[in-house]
Design brief:
disordered C terminus; 2,3-Dihydroxybiphenyl 1,2-Dioxygenase, domain 1; 8 strands; alpha/beta
Amino acid sequence: MPKGNSVQRVDEILIQVSDVQRSLKFYRDGLGIALKATAYGDDSFEANVGGVRFLIHPDFDGSLKNVHRGAGIHIHFWVPDADVYYALLRKRGIQVIEPPENRPWGRHLAVVDPDGYRIEILGPVKKAKRQGKGGAPTPAAKQ
């Protein structure tokens, strides 16, 4: 490939949804993504998430009507604190299919959107607090 003519960035992530209003409630009201109507006039919504345009779009045609959506697709969103976000999701009534857990790639939890797209939430790994005598945290563990 000629130098300078390679992929530079991810421009957008667009997911087709079966019910835009239901998905809007999940992503905007549940996950807190600031989705706004696009200028396309087709009932699609978009948000800038970390410099990448994220869109929910009504089905282009009927080709996905009887298809299992989201198979093999994982969308990862980053948050400053996965545990705080987990509590917020629960308060908003979002079903969490995997509660926060430290993984090699970060503090991880997962939800599934109304169409079956798996949404991964990542945050910084939480360090385990070391326990001193009597169960009290040691000075090194205090933050």
